[in-house]
Amino acid sequence: MNTIIIEAGRTEKNYWADLWHYRELFLVLAWRDVSVRYKQTLIGILWAFLRPLLTMIVFTVIFGRIARLPSDGNTPYAVMVFAAMLPWSLFSNSLTDSANSLISNTNLISKVYFPRLIIPAATLITTFIDFVISFVILIAIMIYYHVVPDCRILLLPFFLIMALLASLGPGLWITALNVKYRDFRHVIPFVVQFGIYVSPVGFSSNIVPEQWRLLYSLNPLVGVIDGFRWCLLGGESPLYLPGLLLSLTVITLFLWLGISRFRRTEKTFADLI
Amino acid sequence: MSDIVIRAERLGKKYIIGRHAQNDSYLALRDVLMKNAKSVWSKTRDLLRGNPVIQGDAMEEVWALKDVSFEIQRGEAVGIIGRNGAGKSTLLKILSRITEPSAGRVAIDGRVVSLLEVGTGFHPELSGRENIYLNGTILGMTRKEIKRKFDEIVAFAEVEKYLDTPVKRYSSGMYVRLAFAVAAHLEPEILVVDEVLAVGDLSFQKKCLGKMEDVARGGRTVLFVSHNMGAIQMLCRKTMLLKNGSLVMIRDSGDAIAQYLSDSRKDREGQIRLAPTGSDAFFTGISIRSSSGEICSEIDVSRSLTISFEYKILRPIRGLEVSFSLFNQCGSKIFYCPQSTSIHHYKNEYPPGEYVGSVEIPGNFLAPGSYTITAGIHQPNIQLFDGRQHVIGFQIVECGSQHYAFDGQDIGSVLVDFPWRIRCLPDGENVSVN
Questions:
Q1: N or C, which terminus of chain B has less Cβ within 10 Å?
Q2: Is B94 on the interface with A (CB under 8 A)?
Q3: Cβ A35–B130 below 8 Å, yes or no?
Q4: Residue B97 is nearest to which of A25, A32, A113, comparing CB atoms?
Q5: pTM check: above 0.95
Q6: pLDDT tens sequence across B162-206
Q7: Could you tell me if residue A228 is inside a domain?
Q8: Is residue B140 part of a domain?
Q9: What is the CATH number of the domain that holds B90?
Q10: Residue B231 is part of which domain span?
């Protein structure tokens, strides 16, 4: 017989096992978010196509045509922008959704027990599905411009996971803080808006002067986006390795911070929300 | 092997409430800025460390639950009663692991399913079918289990036709039926239920009560919070009485309920004092007493109660009388009770002085519910000296009368027991209607 002991200030030894035990709930919540996402909309799933596509067009026109920034090697500007749009929307959507996830599930938290980590984690699935849709557009664009990726594309899942973890760390931290201080709900749109210009989405990170390159890589998205371009553009975009390692370190740090803060406050969620 | 499934030892739950200091004697801008700067600094520091940040200047500890110890045997159905704020919900939340206790420990042997609300996690955009899976998983069922019981759930909820309609288009009755149907088909070892039976229409409520009975008789452990004393009496052999966060007793349901009602009698809410109004006749106080003569605001449905009006007359007034009206919780008038129909005193003249007038309302007359009294001193159709709207209230409480199954339902405001006569029509009589 498995006895559960509930005690003040007890850290659960089997937290991660418990998380596994609730995997079905994780899947059901993810499925709920996915199936609800485009309910009662006119064009439904088309939104997932439109948003990145329009952003890409605007960026290509502004940065490529008007500002005449150089592309990576011989890659068409539109392809280079879209290769960055993928990880960027993955990151920004996951960050936004996971940061708001706890307060949009108030009723669950105050009425049922389960490891709370499930809620922000489940939002990643929804954004991943949007990612898959955008990926289809990317393939279409690449066919149109005759851009052929090489075997580096096999490393794409690594950078994909990197993008998800980059959003999960801050997402967890902010969603935990959001439970008590709704201020943080207003921080996210700002970070996302700001981030798209600070990260090399509309331009190549090769135009950043060499001596600033490492500092620039403190932005974890720089490593992720460079990685995506390196994988997809068939060797036209070189990978700056020290920057990638620095980005990875920053991501790990945020992830650790996010999980530890989340777990520390997790038990008080029901009291505060 | 011991057969104790829940063992709580000195359980406590503390809430910290921030409070703003009352004496704001700092008026200079410099002081205000300093104070705000300090608090911003300390908040930021707490935030970064992950400590709780306290709003306001002072902290106050509130123990919602304190030193609660008890043991519950396997297969027992235990009721939990107490007034609002006694800690019932907090206790359930701790047992179902939603919130962490601040002190003490509980050992629970088995899978707990808590039903603190019907339809937890229901999503309005999803169809009935989808919501059954969603809600079932949230309540801890596996997909296989739900699949196996799906037809049973649908039949219980009586929503076959609307399975693929989004639940936002459901009527509230259908919504609640579906929600309860999912919950009713859980098979936990320990079921924790908070006041969820008071939903749905009458026939469905009876169905739910029946289902709860099955669960309790099926050898599962049930913890059941309710204000419906009748249901507690019927479902639970043992009952826990909580008061201000402490466990008063855990004993036979009858004893605990009796204690609960007599406690509420001692709270003396059934009495108010009234200040003079400046007119020549006015109320000084109104009280409500149980049949045993104690002042109280909660009355057993089967017992009588007495309403007493104390009033003062300053000058002789011809034909003066006191009367009152009784209103139910919806504000509808149940009856008007004047003196003039019961005493032939119409032309009487009362000398100045203090008086008490009282009326006894018999038991098994008012239905369970809340009532208020509006009282007046007047010369009927001539002059009103003192009128008090909804000046005092009381509750009629169900304690296991023959009407207990209707508790929470609108069965009107008075209980009736008119005899029914039933006879079988002979076959010939049916035909002769043509």
A1: C
A2: yes
A3: yes
A4: A113
A5: no
A6: 999 998 898 877 888 888 888 878 877 888 888 765 555 666 667
A7: yes
A8: yes
A9: 3.40.50.300
A10: 64-265
Pull the structure tokens for residue A258: 């996010």
Selection from B47, B51, B57, B54 nearest residue B16 by Cα: B54
Report yes or no on A105 lying in a domain: yes
B42 touches chain A (CB under 8 A): no
What is the per-residue pLDDT across B298-352, written as a single tens digit (0 to 9) for each? Answer: 888 888 999 999 999 988 888 888 999 998 876 678 899 888 766 665 566 788 8
Contact (CB, 8 A) for B280 and B318:
no
CB A77 within 8 A of CB A210: no
Domains: count for chain A: 1
Question: Does B374 lie in the same domain as B290?
Answer: yes
> Alpha-carbon distance B225 to B240, whole Å?
9
Are the C-beta atoms of B360 and B412 separated by less than 8 Å? no
Best mutation target, A23, A38, A112, A118, to test chain B (most B CBs within 10 A)? A112
* Element spanning A232, H or E: helix A220-232
Integer Cα distance of A43 and B194 in angstroms: 42
Selected for mutation to probe chain B from A22, A111, A175 (highest B CB count within 10 Å) is: A111
Collapsing DSSP states into helix, strand and coil, what is residue A242?
helix
Minimal C-alpha gap between A17 and chain B (Å): 16
Q: Does the structure show a pLDDT above 60 at B410?
A: yes
Q: Could you give the CA distance from residue A69 to residue A62 in angstroms, rounded to a whole number?
A: 9
Among B233, B265, B297, which residue terminates a domain? B265
Say how far apart CA A30 and CA A120 lie, in whole Å: 10
Best mutation target, A1, A3, A22, A28, to test chain B (most B CBs within 10 A): A28
Q: Cβ contacts (< 8 Å) between A24 and chain B: which residues? A: 137, 142-143
CB burial string A25-51: b at 16+ within 10 A, e below = bbebbbbbbbbebeeeeeeeeeebbee
Q: Is residue B6 part of a domain?
A: no
In this prediction, the residues of chain A whose per-residue pLDDT falls under 50 are: 1
Q: What is the domain-level CATH number for residue B401?
A: 2.70.50.60
